[in-house]
Design goal:
The complex is a heterodimer of chains A (297) and B (429).
Chain A lengths: L1 H36 L2 E2 L8 E2 L3 H8 L1 H34 L5 H9 L6 H11 L6 H8 L11 H29 L3 H9 L4 H12 L1 H18 L1 H8 L10 H11 L3 H26 L9
Helix pairs in contact in A: 1-13, 2-13, 3-7, 3-10, 4-7, 5-7, 5-11, 7-10, 8-9, 12-13
Chain B lengths: L4 H20 L2 H10 L2 E7 L7 H14 L3 E7 L3 H14 L6 E5 L3 H7 L5 H8 L5 H5 L2 H5 L11 E6 L1 E6 H6 L10 H15 L2 E5 L6 H8 L6 E2 L2 E2 L4 H16 L3 E2 L3 H9 L3 E7 L3 H7 L4 E4 L14 E7 L4 H14 L2 H11 L6 H5 L1 H9 L3 H8 L12 H16 L4 H14 L2
Parallel strand pairs in B: 1-2, 1-3, 6-9, 6-10
Antiparallel strand pairs in B: 3-12, 4-12, 5-10, 5-11, 7-8
The chains are: A mainly alpha (297), B alpha/beta (429).
Chain lengths: 297, 429
């Protein structure tokens, strides 16, 4: 009995080992090393690293550029949540419960853009939306409007870059949410219909709670992956400009690390981002998942 | 001369072993063996297929065919000199550096103070005694482009470019503007106003990539200095006046377009901007994309001043660490400076060749005659100055200048922005 238990334990460890090793080498050690680097002033190749204590962290909060970038990041998160989570959710509910024809066609049409490279998408959008010579600008000019020069305004640039990301991510999130909605037991919905419960109440009280785990997954994906996806159009179109107006924490980390080679600043930013994501996850789990912690995620 | 201890040790060891081999009477055999051994070297460049990558492939292929003892493999690095420098950083961090690399001018000091390399002067005296390859092929001015802030030659100039003023002749003719009106920045500003008023189109676009090369040319052409005695010096009356004219065009008159580089050039080739101030390396792209008569003239200057432009492009630097690879890299480098190689390279990339003999080469001359937009760029080389490279924290300094440009073009006060930027750079020098 005892040896059986021990064998069981060894086997468990053995099965976990490959994943644990990958996690250790590619995630945990790099995070620890990043934390270590965040206390130094170093350029990746100089033979000596200068220890600077908390200075890199202090500059994050005192440097106006970093403050601007942090604010932009919040803006991105808000916008991405609406574009890549709320809207696909609403549309997937409409497709699942209000439209009965051509569901498969919608799925395919919405999904197609997520097969394309984001670099290609960014370049095509930059051309189409060129505020001076792009087709949309020319069309608007014909009918007496002008397209605002969005590359010169941080706010508009953020909206445009989020829209490009939206083009890429929308279909994927839509399909995920739709699959979640589709797996809700039909008998529950039938029962509600027999009881003549209005559709909006059915959705609010039955569908949304039952689809919570999928929605939760897409929500986290939207924030974490969205900020990473948006990196590509930033890099292709604005490079964070005008004057860091469209930069976010991830792009700014990249700029510090691989353009200016300020490894310390970049590491401090990366650690901060890591902590923010941790807090977000914690809040999510506590408040969204809190009531029924045993529910499968 | 940058010869590492490691290299010295290796050289000593090789010499010692050779002497030993000679003593034991096996020298002949080992030499034969060495001669038949193929040395592999890697060459890092930034030329995508659309930017002369095919020319690089041709040159390397031909070299490998004619030099059986050396095999060069070329590696393309995306995102121009910045991308190459990023990859070089990682390569150095993992101790796997390439043997010969293209280094953009803006990185001269950064490369010089952070990487191990063999200077061309050292390579020449080591592998080609009594040769005057460097002084024979390059003028003093051209060599000055590749020197760091201590005056040390870091690499050999390979591709040169200067900013030129492209203009949409069809549009200018329509509004009665002559090319001679564009000789001064004041004239350009006046022409832009005329065009805006008559057609609603923008008059001017000055390139805005991730550097301030073109903006520096504008300041220099008002007699301002970017750097003086190792310190930033652009916050002068002349520097402010130059930026003020540029800002007025963008912010007040709205006659100049302020947008990232790719969008700006799109607007020009689509006929929505009359004049574009950008590198000569764009000439073939511009020529093949427009459906109007496009021409180019030399950089404008401010009234009463001379046009001064910083040179763009890159140098070739030897990063090989072992003698055999260094020697092979030097042989390859010399091959790249053959007239025929340089002309192939120039045609493929749109850059200007760095040697005076290639500039005079009949094939190159006939190429220029077919592409007259290169002429103003060539004319400027004799008066061009090195790209500003600050001795310390140069990458940070360039970013500070980019930030200042973006702030000014968004409407911030020229005076206070330049002052703050200059102070920030000088704190780190």
């Amino acid at each position: 009995m005892n040896s059986n238990k021990q064998q069981h334990r060894v086997l468990t460890l053995l099965y976990l080992a490959p994943t644990a090793l990958i996690l250790l080498v590619f995630i945990i050690i790099p995070i620890i090393y990043t934390l270590y680097l965040s206390f130094f002033d170093w350029n990746l190749i100089a033979p000596t690293k200068n220890f600077v204590g908390w200075r890199n962290y202090l500059t994050i909060f005192t440097d106006p550029v970093n403050q601007k970038v942090l604010l932009n990041t919040l803006g991105y998160i808000g916008l991405l949540l609406v574009l890549n989570f709320v809207i696909p959710y609403v549309i997937s509910i409409i497709v699942q419960f209000f439209i009965h024809k051509m569901q498969g066609v919608y799925k395919i049409i919405f999904f197609i853009p997520s097969l394309f490279s984001l670099v290609v998408g960014a370049m095509v959008f930059a051309w189409i939306m060129n505020p001076v010579s792009g087709p949309i600008a020319l069309f608007l000019r014909q009918i007496g409007f002008t397209l605002p020069n969005w590359t010169n305004s941080g706010g508009l640039a953020i909206v445009m870059l989020c829209l490009i990301t939206n083009w890429k991510v929308f279909g994927y999130n839509f399909v995920l949410l739709l699959t979640g909605l589709g797996s809700i037991p039909q008998n529950l919905i039938d029962a509600a219909q027999v009881d003549h419960i209005p559709k909006w109440r059915l959705i609010w009280d039955v569908v949304l709670p039952l689809n919570k785990s999928m929605a939760f997954y897409v929500l986290i994906l939207t924030i974490v992956q969205g900020l990473q996806y948006v990196f590509t159009p930033i890099n292709v179109i604005t490079q964070g400009g005008p004057y860091y107006g469209s930069s976010n924490v991830l792009y700014h980390t990249y700029l510090n690390a691989f353009v200016l080679y300020k490894t310390g600043n970049a590491s401090a930013l990366a650690i901060l981002t890591f902590v923010i994501f941790l807090i977000l996850l914690f809040l999510e789990i506590k408040f969204v998942e809190g009531r029924d912690a045993d529910a499968p995620i | 001369m940058k010869i590492t201890t490691h290299f010295r040790k290796t050289a000593f060891l090789v010499a010692f072993l050779a002497a030993l081999g000679g003593l034991l009477g096996v020298g002949g055999a080992s030499q034969v063996q060495a001669a038949s051994k193929v040395v592999n070297i890697s060459y890092w460049h930034v030329n995508a297929q659309t930017q002369g990558g095919a020319a690089v492939d041709d040159l390397v292929k031909n070299f490998n065919k004619t030099h059986p003892n050396i095999q060069v493999s070329a590696k393309y690095n995306p995102n121009m000199y910045q991308g190459l420098m990023q990859n070089l950083q990682s390569a150095q961090a993992s101790n796997k550096v390439p043997d010969i690399v293209q280094v953009g001018w803006a990185y001269t000091n950064y490369f010089g103070s952070n990487f191990k390399y063999l200077t061309p002067t050292a390579a020449q005296s080591k592998f080609d005694k009594n040769s005057h390859f460097i002084t024979k092929n390059f003028t003093k001015r051209t060599l000055s482009f590749a020197k760091d802030s201590n005056g040390k030659l870091v690499g050999l100039p390979y591709s040169l470019s200067t900013p030129i003023l492209y203009y949409n002749k069809t549009m200018l003719d329509k509004y009665g503007i002559k090319a001679s009106d564009l000789a001064t920045w004041e004239g350009v500003s006046g022409a832009a106003k005329k065009i805006k008023a008559a057609s609603g189109n923008y008059g001017l676009y000055i390139q805005e990539p991730g550097d301030t090369w073109a903006q520096q040319a504008v300041l220099l052409s008002n007699g301002a200095k970017i750097i003086q005695k190792g310190k930033a010096a652009f916050d002068s009356k002349k520097g402010q006046a130059a930026y003020q004219l540029y800002q007025d065009m963008v912010v007040k008159d709205k006659t100049a377009l302020h947008t990232p580089w790719a969008q700006g050039m799109d607007a020009f080739v689509n006929g929505k901007v009359a004049i574009a101030y950008t590198t000569v390396a764009q000439a073939s792209h511009v020529k093949s994309s427009v459906n109007f008569d496009v021409q180019a003239i030399t950089s404008p200057h401010f009234k009463g001043q001379k046009a001064v432009v910083p040179v763009g492009g890159s140098m070739l630097a030897i990063t090989a660490q072992k003698t055999a690879q260094q020697k092979a890299a030097w042989v390859f480098e010399k091959y790249m400076y053959d007239n025929s190689s340089l002309v192939t390279w120039s045609k493929g990339t749109g850059y200007l060749p760095p040697t005076s003999s290639a500039l005079k080469d009949p094939t190159f001359k006939s190429y220029v005659n077919d592409n007259p937009m290169l002429k103003p760029a060539i004319a400027q080389i004799d008066t061009a100055v090195p790209w500003t490279s600050f001795p310390k924290n140069g990458l940070d300094a360039e970013q500070t200048m980019i930030d200042a440009r973006d702030k000014i073009l968004a409407g911030s006060s020229v005076k206070s922005t330049l002052k703050a930027a200059q102070e920030k750079i000088n704190e780190q020098q």
